[in-house]
DNA sequence: CGTTTTTGACCCGCGC
DNA sequence: GCGCGGGTCAAAAACG
């Protein structure tokens, strides 16, 4: 399968539909994820790292869009109401517990629904790389 | 060789 | 109490 590379920067102006769905008590995936063994919250439990959820609708012939981070696919399941399967991705950073879900819209196969869960706690490499020369130039001009 | 991708199987929570 | 659904992990294979 071909790679996109800088698709994030070459994104067409179609990726403008941003839907905010910050609601629902998604919490920690109801069913799966049982493998975890550190859920033994003592009496002080109650505070759970609730990760925010953001759904983005992107129109692209490609399934996956590189938003500047590295994603590793860890699962794929078919969804009801949709003839297309849903792909589960995760940030490859060990310090980053961000999850991403990509699902194709049944109405338009060209539309993909990207759902981001969590927040990156590490700088964006791609973005940094893209800004590296620019930042350097800025510093150079500032210092001058 | 390292990393990533793919399929199957497993587990837990909730529903009835 | 049991069954189903959904989600995740694991191992092997493929790719660069």
UniProtKB/TrEMBL annotation:
Renumbered residue ranges of the record's region Disordered: 21-53
WRKY domain boundaries: 60-125
Claim: Transmembrane helix is one of the keywords in the record: no
Domain of life the protein comes from: Eukaryota
Keyword Disulfide bond: no
Secretion signal span: 1-17
Keywords: DNA-binding, Nucleus, Signal, Transcription, Transcription regulation
PANTHER family: WRKY TRANSCRIPTION FACTOR 43-RELATED, WRKY TRANSCRIPTION FACTOR PROTEIN 1-RELATED
Annotated protein name in UniProt: WRKY domain-containing protein
Organism: Zingiber officinale
